[in-house]
């Protein structure tokens, strides 16, 4: 019997010298290299406009990416052998001529992964030129970075253009939140444990909070961010994907399309918000100067290259509703913002109060049962319950049951980008967005963006280092709830 021959692999990164590449992609690929998850004949080809050869690109990555690799993992010999995998092709991605150089740089008969870490405005050009140069075949894969378009129309145009040259099964629309261990563990928590499924619905769940809070500001990304805002940058993709995993029905299998079918149903069940809903159920904010981590920082309008009188939102809070029988009457509170008090990404499932309590006069209702799923800065799952304090009497206090994943599993836990890049190489689509899923998300988000524009309300100010505008607390208070940090 002949041994199976593994074809060579070429990972081609458009925008190979960009921020995403040297901060995230190359360190993730190094970790995959270090742990033997890349085939011997794997080469990583950076593509960009710099007039560089291979040596200059290797030197650049050596200087920039090294600092973003875990110090304990940075073994000198392994790093050196990883750099030997690198190559660079200088070309303008919008011009056909340079693609002949890229074709010559690729290995004969290789599986080609094209990672488009560029502006989505040139995805169409890249796909077209890859096709006309003969670089696309049945084994090729293309990874599309967010934000995929700035509205439904542009997203559809990009999808249509890429689909002319790649089959849907070859297209990987990446959202790194779906690569986080705890997010993937949420499906096992829900569908692999019988104790949760009967309670994972109304009326047993009172509310769901999904928060992605950042302490950083826009920094040098003012030009990009002011045309994007928090709704496009975070809500339309990251937060809606998290909502889908919380709210989806059990898929009939782990087949990628079975999982994504159920997520699509959730997106189609989201209640559309009209102008009156937007006034009541959404809050936009924009940070002003303040103090973050003990350091005084600029307000949004004082950031470099910021247009004057910008009304771009850096904070969004939304009360969403999934209109189906499982979630009837359960509010989903979505919140994201820059320059917040703490860096925190978490999902909080708040269960309903007992219908009758024998513990009269105690404040059990102020400490509800909560399932707290923390995605960053550390990944953890905790169940908040009530327990009796030691001593006489029956005084209660909240305690936590911890699902300690790090102690339970001793093997290394890959970072999100590493896990997703390996999924691309292996051809696993489960944790990537399908075209109809992306467009369904835009169909919900677009009317919100258009409605805000029509209302023309200035974003509410909030000082950097706070938890956002006071109006966001009012948003949840109407449902007799508080944001987690205040509870």
Automatic annotation (TrEMBL):
The active site is at residue 238. It catalyses: D-glucose 6-phosphate + NADP(+) = 6-phospho-D-glucono-1,5-lactone + NADPH + H(+). Substrate binds at residues 176, 180, 214, 233, 338. Pathway: Carbohydrate degradation; pentose phosphate pathway; D-ribulose 5-phosphate from D-glucose 6-phosphate (oxidative stage): step 1/3. Its EC number is 1.1.1.49. It is an enzyme of class 1 (oxidoreductase). GO terms for molecular function: glucose-6-phosphate dehydrogenase activity. Residues 12-185 form the Glucose-6-phosphate dehydrogenase NAD-binding domain. Keywords: Carbohydrate metabolism, Glucose metabolism, NADP, Oxidoreductase. InterPro entries: G6P_DH, G6P_DH_AS, G6P_DH_C, G6P_DH_NAD-bd, NAD(P)-bd_dom_sf. Residues 187-483 form the Glucose-6-phosphate dehydrogenase C-terminal domain. It comes from the Bacteria. The keyword NADP applies. NADP(+) binds at residues 49, 146. The keyword Chaperone does not apply. Belongs to the glucose-6-phosphate dehydrogenase family. Catalyzes the oxidation of glucose 6-phosphate to 6-phosphogluconolactone. This is Glucose-6-phosphate 1-dehydrogenase. The lineage of its organism: Bacteria, Pseudomonadati, Pseudomonadota, Betaproteobacteria, Burkholderiales. The gene is zwf.
